[in-house]
Structure formats: C-alpha cells, structure tokens
Amino acid sequence: xxxxxxxxxxxxxxxxxxxxxxxxxxxxxxxxxxxxxxxxxxxxxxxxxxxxxxxxxxxxxxxxxxxxxxxxxxxxxxxxxxxxxxxxxxxxxxxxxxxxxxxxxxxxxxxxxxxxxxxxxxxxxxxxxxxxxxxxxxxxxxxxxxxxxxxxxxxxxxxxxxxxxxxxxxxxxxxxxxxxxxxxxxxxxxxxxxxxxxxxxxxxxxxxxxxxxxxxxxxxxxxxxxxxxxxxxxxxxxxxxxx
Length: 243
What we know:
Elements: E1 10-14, E2 17-20, H1 21-41, H2 51-71, H3 79-94, H4 107-136, H5 146-188, E3 192-195, E4 198-201, H6 207-240
Antiparallel strand pairs: 1-2, 3-4
C-alpha cells in the first residue's frame, strides 16, 4: 500500500535538489508516452494499413472533436495541449494500479495544471480587453462587488486543483483505511498468517483490489476527463470575447 499520510517520498537528491515520487513518476510517464507515440506513428501511411495507426487516428479525432465542440473551431490549436493534459492525468492516476503512488494524489501536480489553465484564461481576457479593461471587468456590474469577483477568479483554479486531487487522494485514504480494517478483522478471527517476514490476511485479498480498481481506474479516468473538459470550457469562454 502507498503511504497516504506523509505525501510523496523523496526518492533521491542531486546537489541538494530533492526528487520525489511524483517527479520520478512524471518522467517515467513522459518516457512511456514518448515510446507509445513513436510506436503508434511508426511507418504511417496515407491509408491506414496497421491497427496501431487506426488507434492513433481515432484518439486524434476524438480530441479534435472535443476541442471543436467545446472550444470552437478557432481554438483547435489547443488540441495538442488538451490531449497531453488528458493522457498525463489518466496515466498519472492509473499508475497506482501497479503499486506506484498516483501523481494526481499530489496537490502540487493538480495545482500546477490548474494554474496553467488560469494563465490561459487570463491571457485571453487581457487580449480581448487589454490590461486596464481586464481589471475594470472586476467592478462590473457594480463597483462594490470587486472583491467578490476577485475571489471568484481565484476560486476557478483552486476548485479545479482540489477537485482532481481530492477525488484521487480520497480514494487512496478510503482504500488504505479499509485495507487496515480488514487486516484487523482477519487477525481477530484468526485468519492472519505469518511465515517469517511474509504476512497474509484472508480478508485483505480481493476487496481492496476491487475498490482500488474503482477509485484508480474508473474515478481516476472520469476526473481526468472532467478536468480536461473544465479547462476547455473556461478557456473557450474567455476566448469568446477575443474573437
């Protein structure tokens, strides 16, 4: 089971710079995605002859379709960014299925993605209204709600970051607590066995795995999709005034 209480562990240090599990997992995912992309696109033909090219084209069409429908055809340039965000978020959650710590269970990761979305939103608003117009918009429709509009603006990236982080981290906590409770139940009923350094509890087999599949596979993928959709909606809405 992953350590859910103390956050990601430091794996190694170089010159005083610490590299945590999150950083290592992030680079491993980057390498894995690079290899996958090279394999899927190797020897591509104008008319697909291999299943891997068909799979690659289906994914590209899926992302392009989402971006066009949600953000509009004028913002199709964001398709590579959305595809990267979606793949990274999904794989960042799924790595916990092989016993590694989920990247999206680290608030630093989800907060960084949310800040990137906030920067894109702010860019389009400033591009449409200019810097003075951007700040004046916080005083609309009446000046005294200026503080509320500021809070609302800051709440957008905060809610996005905590939505993804909370669902994944919450799943880890629930699974960990249940795993411990089932171990205690097994011990109380005499169904825990030890052979040297190896321990085995009957009730810890099966049930935690099912919950892990739900929280890591189903919930993780859904939350990654929602995060990507929210990014498209917020950026697309900000860009409407920039047309």
